[in-house]
Amino acid sequence: MYIVELSLKHTALPMSVQKKTLEAAEEAYAKVLNALKTGQPVLFELTCDKQEGKKLSVLVSELAAVQVYEKSGGASSSGKSAGFFAMAND
């Protein structure tokens, strides 16, 4: 599984969906990145492959960042979890 994680302005906790393949994750990442660059569409929606029926909708103007990473068995080999806020534990 691959995680597509969105960080929102003024919100500490990221929002994420899971994709089964790297290609699907990269496609979702590219769509979000394009929306960040252009501001279009105004409202962006992602669906989750792991949890059927899970949907994520966000105003593009509220997005701060997007990232893709492969889901591991919890913490990485360095003992830190993946994500934007992993450095906050230092």
Helix and strand composition category: alpha+beta
Note the quaternary state here.
single chain
Count of helical stretches = 1
Q: Report the span from N to C terminus.
A: 27 Å
**What is Rg?**
13 Å
Strand content: 25-35%
Low-confidence stretches: 75-80
Order of helices and strands: EEHEEE
Report strand order across the widest sheet: 2-1-5
Family: Belongs to the UPF0367 family.
InterPro entries: UPF0367 (IPR020885)
Protein name: UPF0367 protein IXB50_16070
Organism: Leptothoe spongobia TAU-MAC 1115
Summarize the structure.
The chain has 90 residues and is an alpha+beta fold. The protein has one helix spanning 22-38; strands spanning 2-8, 15-19, 43-47, 55-59, 63-70.
What would your notes on this structure say?
The chain has 90 residues and is α+β, with helices and mostly antiparallel strands. It has one domain (2-76). Helices cover 19% and strands 33% of the residues. The protein contains one helix and five strands; from the N terminus they run ββαβββ. It has one helix at 22-38, and strands spanning 2-8, 15-19, 43-47, 55-59, 63-70. A three-stranded antiparallel sheet has the order 2-1-5, with helices on one face. The protein has a two-stranded antiparallel sheet with strand order 3-4. It starts with a strand and ends in a 20-residue tail after the last strand. The model is unreliable at 75-80 (pLDDT under 50).
